[in-house]
Amino acid sequence: MFVRGLKRKCFDGEEDIEGTLAGIKAIPSYNLQRQSLLDMSLVKLQLCHMLVEPNLCRSVLIANTVRQIQEEMTQDGTWQMINTQSTGQASLDRLVSTDILCRSSREQAEGKHVPGYSAFSKDFEGDQAQDSSETMSTGSSVQAPRNLQSDVWEMENPQENKGNFQKSLDQIFETLENKSPNSVEDLFSEVDNSYYDLDTMLTGMMSNTKMGHCDGLETFSSPTTTTSNSNCKSDLNELDHIVEILVES
Amino acid sequence: FLGAGGGNDIQWCFSQVKGAVDDDVAEADIISTVEFNHSGELLATGDKGGRVVIFQQEQENKIQSHSRGEYNVYSTFQSHEPEFDYLKSLEIEEKINKIRWLPQKNAAQFLLSTNDKTIKLWKISERDKRPEGYNLKEEDGRYRDPTTVTTLRVPVFRPMDLMVEASPRRIFANAHTYHINSISINSDYETYLSADDLRINLWHLEITDRSFNIVDIKPANMEELTEVITAAEFHPNSCNTFVYSSSKGTIRLCDMRASALCDRHSKLFEEPEDPSNRSFFSEIISSISDVKFSHSGRYMMTRDYLSVKIWDLNMENRPVETYQVHEYLRSKLCSLYENDCIFDKFECCWNGSDRQVQLCSGIVMTGSYNNFFRMFDRNTKRDITLEASRENNKPRTVLKPRKVCASGKRKKDEISVDSLDFNKKILHTAWHPKENIIAVATTNNLYIFQDKMN
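Above: the input entities. Below: the structure tokens describing the complete assembly.
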């Protein structure tokens, strides 16, 4: 029966956490949940570039969720500033990385079955819920392994990088890692409406431009009214465990 | 139940089920829309493979007057084909998003069907006679040598086996950049609207090369996009009024007389958020997946992820009634987000437009998971959960109500939340306009239930 994540333990603010002060016991748990949700959302956005045009409503809702989380994290001051290399190269990395992601997942779609995000989480479905304390301690080290994941893909031959799905996910997290706090990738392809005046039967003009095009960086639009720091009481899965598996593979 | 007021609850019985029996669902067979025509005699379904199947109700058997006519296949045709957008390098799905019937004006039936990009007007007509006895043609169509014709005769119509033909009469294309989610025929029966994620267009049924844009919420900079249109419908009586719903849980009522571009709403319906229920998923679950006017036009119903709301058009700041469809899912939102179920778009519908019950409320119906569907009686405030399953397929046996156990001890016959099958979702339901007959679509099967007469 199809029940994702329901068997996982729910993070509870009141759970005992090793090595943390009693006063801030609840906070790492909430932060971890929030981070997991953010990561999950970003993965969802990346993976929606398939053969058929992604559902715009879904993309918008996920993007809004991402924005909400990022705003809250910025407010909390928990957003980590990650130092990248020179901005020029960093932005190029970002552009290329997402393009490769989209291309490789597209090529996968043409060649073989693309597992899609659902399969991705299915892989972890098999793992039973870990001990919460064990998870908590690995949680804090999640950021570090990502940094170590520097086996960057070969940018010289993106076509050859028909990476398997696992590798694409590595790349996603690489991308996540390099985000600067005030940018969100452009998720919505801008469509030039003038094209629609042309006869669409333009064979041989299969442009690559719209394959999950993620143009440039985007600064946050004006912040919406922030939510009060209410606890997210929903059942969040132990995605730190997922990340751990990803990172190690 | 056709009398006004409560007292007689409807007893729903299984009537028929259409579709493949095996568990392996072919993707093309996934039902994507269900709609009765205005008389209820015809029931149309659209599927992911771009096909439309129309069922016709048999004439009531006078001898067996306790059961209403069965629905049998009347016509099947390929409405839309998959296309490829070369400029965007993307496929255009042939999936039928919506079907809407036109009221019948002559012997033929007309319906609008749409996929993501193109709306088509189909004419469905019957042919039960054909001309025979041509002078210059043989019966098989070959031409006769004129020199062999010695006498002349007048061709006559002779009966033939009934043939139902569907032909596309109009194709309304190239007006939508984004995916069409709704079509709605105006009460003038001459125009209709089509809505995509960001725009709503007004068409005349006779004119295919032109449409008027009446709503445009596309921001100048797409990166600023935070809200999309999710559904739209014309008012049943006022031909100048329509509503559209958004992914942020708002409904806007617009009057086309106010301006050519109805970007400024006449009314904005929005319920203030409940701060105690706030989470990162609040916005997603507030996104409205369907909006339907009541037959009188006084109320409208909206469906969001967890609830059905009834709005009085005269009151914008909150709904007059809210019905919880599956509140037990609120604690599972993160999992449902992870597996994308939180983005499922459930539809809702009103009961038939019997004139006597028109003034007082009625019953509303919507789907849920595990092949459950729910009905809420606005009069009695009672609700019921039923299941569309082949296990209950004994005609004239009343369906057993189902119950989901949210927490605590599970009683006998209850099903626990963790046992629900989220792959079995009922997104599309329809209610016969005049009788208590309902059509409920599971993934690839269509169930027809009717109330137990006598």
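Note for the figure: Chain A touches chain B through 59 residues (CB under 8 Å).
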